[in-house]
Specification:
alpha/beta; globular; Rossmann fold; single chain; 2 domains
Length: 194
């Protein structure tokens, strides 16, 4: 059975909206459309560690974090029929319970919850397919020979590796994964034949 790693921030939870509200009270206004690269905070003179700490603060108010799209629960339920879906997320340890509460609140279907401290660690995990929004993570996953489905966000639009399949809605991952499974089966059958 195929093993699918499903990211949270930027794929399921639109935490950047909560961070923008938080940021815009402290600093100059930033709009989501202003974010055109993964490490956008550099352009706004925000320290990387401050940014991630502020994201953790946003997760304390997890009920205020909207999902990235409507019908997210239905999409995860359908994904789980294709294989084992685990939540694989990089974050501060202090936020795990808040994230789990958010996942339960929105009815997200998954088997296991896996937390790592850095996004690049994900590529070393034993998953066949990763659904993520980070272009940096996507690059390392592809280099590790994994299949990647990139959830479309303003900060990953410049990532154009054709090996990553881009989706605009989570439900669009379902036919992509179906094709990956079919290709994998076909390759296995072909290698067995004399």
């Amino acid at each position: 059975m195929v093993k699918i790693a499903l990211d949270v921030d930027g794929v399921l939870a639109d935490v950047i909206q909560s961070w923008l509200s938080y940021n815009n009270k402290l600093r100059a206004t930033i709009l989501k459309s202003d974010i055109s690269e993964w490490d956008f905070w550099k352009r706004h003179n925000i320290d990387k560690f401050d940014f991630y700490k502020e994201l953790s603060v946003c997760w304390k108010s997890w009920k205020d974090i909207p999902p990235t799209e409507n019908e997210i629960s239905s999409a995860t339920k359908k994904l789980s029929k294709l294989g084992t879906v685990d939540i694989v997320t990089a974050r501060e340890e202090s936020t795990h319970n808040n994230v789990k509460n958010w996942l339960q609140f929105y009815g997200i279907t998954f088997k296991n919850y896996i937390g790592v401290s850095e996004g690049l660690e994900k590529a070393r995990l034993d998953y066949d397919i990763f659904i993520d929004d980070s272009p940096i993570n996507a690059k390392s996953m592809l280099e590790a020979g994994k299949s990647v489905i990139l959830y479309n966000q303003p900060w990953n639009l410049k990532f154009d590796d054709p090996r990553a399949k881009r989706i605009h809605k989570l439900k669009n991952a379902i036919p992509v994964i179906g094709r990956i499974i079919d290709t994998h089966k076909y390759t296995k059958q072909e290698s067995i034949q004399p």
